[in-house]
Write a structure and sequence with these properties.
GO terms for molecular function: G protein-coupled receptor activity; olfactory receptor activity. The protein is mainly alpha-helical. Helices cover 73% and strands 3% of the residues. The chain has a three-stranded mixed beta sheet. The N and C termini lie far apart (72 Å).
Length: 312
């Protein structure tokens, strides 16, 4: 077929949850509450870490950057999801769709790298405590954070370039809750085997490599902690890792099943549910995980509240 005779798609229609049309208003308010809580919670942690001098350590610098990252990560998809829940015309332009994919994947990749850096930080703190201050210096911490951002922002460029050169002639209904590579590729009017392969290779390297690095860090951490003679020492060592491990398993548990697979066909409802976990639930839970399970952050919050009252 002559590509020149095909009509060119200029916008997509995001179907979201078509089986839940009767409760979309309730879903809107539920998602709005979750989104506002996510913004306030992550913003609170980011500000507390930067305002409290006692939290100016590499571990909490990584936590604050993760909280800041979640603000952009959720902003890439949730506002459009909220608008689509109330709108009859759930459209997004072709360029807007590519931008949404780019920012969602670049910030998601940055989160993978940042979680890996946090695992490495815990490895140095627990397995090499005497050398930790000289190894994880503020300068190195800053370089790692910058590297995570640069690596993440550069990550999806090749995939976006390939998708932008595909012909789309209709239909234009995206069977997902936001623009993403798999559902968009399924709408292309040509063979997308190369795109699927490139997507699989990049995601495998990015997701599997970082996940394996995190696991290797924690294997060595567990081995070191088990050698600590006192039960109190073991609890203290594990408590510094509990929050990070919880976030890792929730985040990676969903994205591994979603993106590390070499096929175009997939269960739509299954993928929508997974997308809710890593795009909505994980950023929502992070502030609670890091604040409710972390004594230092809770104490820092109390200090900031007392300081605010004194100034008031």
């Amino acid at each position: 077929m002559d590509i020149g005779n095909w009509s060119h798609v200029t916008e997509f229609i995001i179907l979201g949850f078509p089986h839940l049309k009767g409760v979309q208003t309730y879903l809107f308010f539920l998602l709005l509450v979750i989104y506002l809580t996510t913004i306030l919670g992550n913003l609170l942690i980011f500000l507390v870490v930067h305002l409290d001098a006692q939290l100016h350590t590499p571990m909490y610098q990584f936590v604050s950057i993760l909280s800041f990252l979640e603000l952009g990560y959720t902003a890439a998809t949730i506002p459009k999801m909220l608008a689509n829940l109330l709108s009859e015309k759930k459209t997004i332009s072709f360029s807007g769709c590519l931008l949404q994919i780019y920012f969602f994947h670049s910030l998601g990749a940055t989160e993978c790298y940042l979680l890996t850096a946090m695992a490495y930080d815990r490895y140095l703190a627990i397995c090499r405590p005497l050398h930790y201050p000289t190894l994880m210096t503020p300068s190195l911490c800053t370089k790692i954070i910058v590297g995570c951002w640069l690596g993440g922002l550069a990550g999806p460029v090749a995939e976006i370039f390939l998708v932008s050169h595909l012909p789309f002639c209709g239909p234009n209904h995206i069977q997902h809750i936001f623009c993403d590579f798999p559902p968009v590729l399924s709408l292309a009017c040509t063979d997308t085997s190369i795109n699927v392969l490139v997507d699989f290779v990049i995601n495998s390297c990015k997701i599997l490599a970082t996940f394996l690095l995190i696991l290797s860090s924690y294997v060595q951490i567990i081995c070191t902690v088990l050698e600590i003679p006192s039960a109190a020492g073991k609890r203290k060592a594990f408590s510094t890792c509990a929050s990070h491990l919880t976030v890792v398993f929730i985040f990676y548990g969903s994205i591994l099943f979603m993106y590390v697979r070499l096929k175009k066909s997939y269960s739509l409802d299954y993928d929508r549910a997974l997308a809710v976990v890593y795009s909505v639930i994980t950023p929502f839970l992070n502030p609670f995980i890091y604040s409710l399970r972390n004594k230092e952050i809770k104490e820092a919050m109390r200090r900031q509240v007392k300081r605010t009252r004194l100034l008031g």
